[in-house]
Amino acid sequence: MASSSSSSKTGLKKMLTLKSSDGDEFELEESIVIQCQTIKHMVEDGFSLIPLQNVDTKTLTKIIEYMKKHAEKTESNKEEIKNFNKEFVKGSFDDQFELVSAANYLHINGLMDLLCQSIADRINNKSVRAVREIFNISNDYTPDEEEKVRDEHKWAHEGGEFDESLD
Amino acid sequence: MISADPPGDEMTNILSTLLVEALMQFRSVCKSWCSIIRDPHFVNMHMNHHSSYKESSYLISKDIMLDVAEIKARFTLYSDETFTEHKKMEFPLWESIKSFEVFGCCNVARKVINETEYDDFVVSFNMADHVFEEIMLPKSCLDDGELTVSLAVFRDSLYLFVHGRELPGWWHVLMMGEDCSG
């Protein structure tokens, strides 16, 4: 396995295979895949078949789509990339969370920033109740404790209209 | 689905991109969110994300508003680069006529303000959420009229130096905890 890292000198584009947790394999050029720090390190260690036990096929397909597009990035297609990013973050919260976890695991910094920012933009104006639903968090405060925390920052709770929707 | 407990990197990353107003509100989502949001490292991370709160980027002036009915102390934060007014605020903690001075800033977020003369507490002000907090100083050293006290901020701690007839001693007061040590 260790011998494959020097084969790129033959002129052929070096290909790598990513294997999802569902067992599906995706063959990609090394130049695309090395945007991902975790894989880059594995490639440097001589791997050419990369098993990703934490990433399912659906999520991996999206991530590959992102990496392919961003590998094309030049000075002249900034607008195109921007539009791509906008479309990319349109999925449901659950899809976004899957992607954030994968982006974090794979160390794709650009994708991580994009997703965190888009999730934050979507929840900035949400009510506490909606946020709990969206993140599937159960309220572990007693009513008294919650009241106390809210009292500390009354100004943050005043006057605003909060969005109760879950999308 | 991201697990909120224990909070992962992902959650911290998402929270650090939120607006301050949202963060303050979301302290009441659950205890683990609250502790992430209160964590000094998180506060730093959040400030780095939001360039409007750069380190030491404010000047403070005190304005006393004289009114027939009441005297109100306010202060104003100015940006130190442009001198534009950032925010006007009221002192929530003190009698208006007393004076104060700013001792410094630690944890990036926290400015320490002290009420001068004969008082046994200092006040910290958190730039991230605009919250004031009182820090009580060890009482015993201050009650003795023979001692003089000075304060300094260094790294992430507030130091209290006590000078007396005997050897000088010092306390340091941890900013984030309440402990005083001699």
UniProtKB/TrEMBL annotation, chain A:
Using the UniProt annotation, give all residue ranges assigned to the region (Disordered).
Answer: 143-167
Keyword Methyltransferase listed? The answer is no
One Pfam assignment: Skp1
Q: Tell me the Gene Ontology biological-process terms attached to this UniProt entry.
A: jasmonic acid mediated signaling pathway; protein ubiquitination; ubiquitin-dependent protein catabolic process
List, as start-end ranges, the regions of compositional bias called Basic and acidic residues: 147-160
InterPro entries listed in its UniProt record: SKP1, SKP1-like, SKP1-like_dim_sf, SKP1/BTB/POZ_sf, Skp1_comp_dimer, Skp1_comp_POZ
Which domain of life does this protein belong to? Eukaryota
Metabolic or biological pathway, per its Swiss-Prot or TrEMBL entry: Protein modification; protein ubiquitination
Keywords assigned by UniProt, alphabetized = Ubl conjugation pathway
Say if the entry is tagged with keyword Disulfide bond.
no
**Domain (SKP1 component dimerisation): residue spans on this chain:** 110-156
The residues covered by the SKP1 component POZ domain are 14-71
Function, please?
A: Involved in ubiquitination and subsequent proteasomal degradation of target proteins. Together with CUL1, RBX1 and a F-box protein, it forms a SCF E3 ubiquitin ligase complex. The functional specificity of this complex depends on the type of F-box protein. In the SCF complex, it serves as an adapter that links the F-box protein to CUL1.
PANTHER family to which the protein is assigned, alphabetical = SKP1
| Quaternary state and interactors | Part of a SCF (SKP1-cullin-F-box) protein ligase complex.
Family of this protein = Belongs to the SKP1 family.
- What is this protein's name? SKP1-like protein
Species for this entry: Anisodus tanguticus
UniProtKB/TrEMBL annotation, chain B:
What range(s) does the F-box domain occupy? 11-42
Q: Which Pfam families match?
A: F-box
**Listed InterPro entries:** F-box-like_dom_sf, F-box_dom, SCF_F-box_component
Put simply, this protein is called F-box domain-containing protein
Query: What species does this protein belong to?
Result: Anisodus tanguticus
Please spell out the taxonomic lineage of the organism that makes this protein: Eukaryota, Viridiplantae, Streptophyta, Embryophyta, Tracheophyta
